Records
---
Amino acid sequence: MIPVIQSLIDATSAGAVYALAALGIGLVFGVLRLANFANGEIITGAAYALLLLWPVSWPLALAASVVVAVALSLLMDLAVFRWMRSQSPAALLIASFGVSILLQRFYEGIFGARVLSGSVAPALTRSVNVGGLRLSLLAIVAIVLAAILLLAVHLFLTRSRMGLQVQAASADFRVARILGIRSGAVIAVTLGMSGILAAAVAFILTAQSGAVDPTFGVQATVFGLIGAVIGGLNRIGGALVGGFAVGFALSLFTSWLPSGFNDFRVAFVYLLVIVVLLIVPNGIFGGRTAKERT
Amino acid sequence: MWTLIVPMVVVWLFALLASNVSPAAAIDLSYALATLIVVVAMWSFIGNSGVLSFGHLAFVAVGAWTMSLLTISPLVKSSVMPELAPFLAEASADPVIALIIAAAVGGVTALISGFALMRLHGLEAGIATFALLMLVVQVLTYWSAIGPKSGQSMTGIPRSFDLQSTLLIALIVIVLAWSYGQSRSARLLRASRENSQAAPASGISITRHRIIAFTVSGALAGVGGAMWAQTNRVIQASQFGLDFTFTTIAMLIVGGMLSLWGAVVGTLLISALNHVLGVLENGVQIGGVIVSLPSGSRLVVVAALMVLIIILRPSGITGGREARWPFRPRDPFLTGVVATPRAATT
């Protein structure tokens, strides 16, 4: 019984990270129709800020990581994505691919291609034993941080005026615009939120690994993006659930696959993704006919 | 016919030129030709169906694997890949036959996955095909019965085709892709690309024709993989990842993904650019000063070029049009009406 609970806790914390990543991607997709692959480089940027500034002062590092992430997110839009608003999601995805590669080379130019290591929040690496369960403090922090942020995003979207405008823009940008939402502000707020979420992902991942390289954020983004798609891209909550599911599955496969198959755990996750998309082509919460056929 | 002849002549001239510039250019040329096959293969699905696929490198990888397993000598195989399944350890074939088998394996893989994936559209199709690629890469990385032990590279691939025959194979692939593009199935598929509501309403089964296109392009991609493997002479599953996918998609987008001509132009342009940048990375003496670009600037230039093209000219350099005989008055139906950005990018 203990190992089962143990792996469920681990899986929940892994799921929480990918849920955050997927939510950031899902929010932006909802408003801009942009499946932002370069979200990974926002995470990487925040991770570099954390790692480099943590020895100086931790509050500064946390603040800097958020600032870097939000600034990167806004800059990307300003430099690239705002010039291609009318294009299809697929074209936007490919462009974000390009932005991602550009930024990776940029990091390589500044920090070098090699892994930069350091320790972020070393206090969190401790773990406590509760009745045979090994509870890593970091796993708990990941779950709590995710829960707080998700609740904050939820409250913001449902309770605040701006949040309602974001939701309206997400449902139908053109109509919302005609009805008088401030489109520029809505876009900026959405990008800002995705930046904050990326910074949170960066915090958990750097605390876990203590090492950053130019492709640091790619894996979380790939799984986040996949999670957002299988959850259903036209529902913000769907992205969340999808991202969580991907992280959860990945972690469970890691701990429960027989040793001969353990190498294939990632392959199983991708297989699962294909199977889910076969059963529900628009994603789990995507609805049946909500999307046009493109 | 010009839509076939112009690309072929251009590829031939390009090859003639590049092979005479320098030995380094000749080496890069054989990579360019192998990549050209891959991009043309991708075009025969993406261009005709308008559905994005991030998964074609899966078929390229499968083709490369097939070619290598069939042409590496059994002695080398037993030492590099001791856990290989017995029938693979013994199998060997003539390079040309191996190439055909690589095409068949690529096509069959595409056919099987096509039944599953071709019901999806847009971004979901993109993600699902990407998942397919990652699935294949993981299997090739870790399954030691069909390749080297986890993530190691497969070496000892003999060089079976010289530059001339690589060029010939690339030209044959262009002919095949073009003939497929002329077929009834491809025409119906293009109709569905332009209007996904009207096409099924006129009795076109989109899924069926997509599966056909996917299979054709999977087979051609298998050829591309085989040629790539024997150009590079060392293959590793991780080579068929995001960077390679990105480069080939960038070539298709820069050239214009709706036309075969676009696929050819994009590949040749970016390959030439890659070569020049590669030379610059190694350092060039200009007036007594050695100027060299930082390594890795190739991918930066390609990425920047692609982003610029998507912003400024979404349908690519060729505008998604096929090559035509240059001395003919423009067809009034071809100017203005076709290749609107929306149709070009869905």
---
Amino acid sequence: MKTTDTPPAPPAAGPAPAAKRPAPAVEEKSSEGKVLNVFSHGVLIIWAILVVMPLLWAVMSSFKTDDSILSTPWELPDKLHFENWSRAWNQAHMSDYFFNTIVVVGGSLVGTLLLGSMAAYVLARFDFPGNRFLYFLFIGGMSFPIILALVPLFFVMNNMSLLNTQHGLILVYIAYSLPFTVFFLTSFFRTLPTSVAEAAMLDGASHTRTFFQVMLPMAKPGLISVGIFNFLGQWNQYMLPTVLNTDPNQRVLSQGLVELANSQGYKGDWSGLFAGLVMAMLPVLGAYIVFQRQVVAGLTAGAVK
Amino acid sequence: MQHGRYRFIVGFLVAPLALYAVFVIWPFIQSIYYSFTDWTGLSPDFKMVGFDNYTRMFKDDIFWKSLQHSVLLVLLLPLVTLGLALFFAFMLNVGGRRRKNATVSGVRGSGFYKIAYFFPQVLSIVIVALLFQFAFNPRGGMINSTLEGIGLDSFQPEWLGDPNLALICVMTVLVWSTVGFFVVLFSAGMASIPKDFYEAALLDGANRFTTFFKITLPLLWDTVQSGWVYMGILALGVEAFTAVQVMTVGPGGPDYSTTVLPLYVYQTAFRDGQAGYATTIGVGLLIVTMLFAAVVMRLGRRERLEF
């Protein structure tokens, strides 16, 4: 994996330590550089360990027996207890939670990208009265506390018979993803060249057709970035489903894990719990390792703009 | 043509706008209205009570405790997180051994560090909170057994069970999961600073600490400021709610020692059945959020540097 801003490391046996360089002003500084180098590596490695250790500990614990998790937390498992995993997957309903999450996130991700790009396209490319107002109305949603709207939202959903339904949750996810999506895609559509769209219009394509056949394909990089951002956000969503989705059969992954922790904790099934946790980590871990660059670009895109 | 254009605009906006209005804007407006009622949320009947909820809020000890914790989070979390992230990012980008033709350089393997540091950011805050709930477990948890391993048997805190430590534990977890994001963000910003700035400073005899405060930080200030806002929203919103709700007993900690405003709103509405009063606390939270944003914008305003 390469990062764009780091030059490749020189060969380890490089014969030119900085101290031998001729320029005196620089030579003086180079000893400082060496000390700093050791210091930097030390500090950086410590934080890397602090980040990685809890995750490795969880993976290790998921293969151990309950007794050994509590009595010898740092010892490797005597053998790989895969039964923890199958117990979590089947008896603790992790399979159901996964399935529910995939349905809800799949539906809302498609909806978010479609509706978000439609609104963003119109706001970015067409001049009409109220354009600015609608734009700020959309992006204003990024800054207010969701919890405030959550209490009335519960009753709005109740009146529309959308509580504890997957389509209800999908609609809410889409609505709460729109502010950032519209914000991001509006600035993206503004950067796309107008000439191609104009050519398409001259050839007699309608606005709708131009959008779907010309603009959307051109906006693919932006859609991928904002898609990853929304995927992680919606996959990890906890507060909205906790309030709006209390039917045990409809639980999504994050709710299921908390439920698992609460109920299994009493039973003392620690190994099953860790297996469930690691299971839930794996998809994002995999996605992150494979799409590392896009994930970072997608997540940091909003903050640098 | 003109007709078709407006039909297109309306056609494309109607669905997203309708969803947004029904599920975001409308509840938001309603919540301000409900904050003046005695609505329980359970029965359809309620009446206007004027400012009763607001006077009640000002006398409510738990509200003040939650507010205090939320304000503490808003002040400390960005400070610690952004400080650590700036430090690491500077190490990654400027802390390396000097190489040929490079005045400043990153440490070797900075790509690896960035990948590792960023990872907690993609994990759900629920997973992170659960993981650390086990890690902080006094019996058999990772942290206390490590302490035991290095011979600190006598120092075995109860962590989340200790009212004095619980909130610090929650904060540590939030810092742990967010630092990597800002390391990557600040690294990208630092990489775009022209190298000759550093060259000139080093020739003038500036050491790295001076260059950090005189060159890197001022040029990065815009990014730091948006990071500050982002951390503040996180500390007042969903992340703090989730971390406290999942990690601490109660939830809300022993003797409300970790309760935060969003959690108190949630509990008042959905556990205690006082929807009206809950929205009042929500309005309090909104005011805190707006104050915070205003303060950051005001303090953060500096001359913009172009390069």
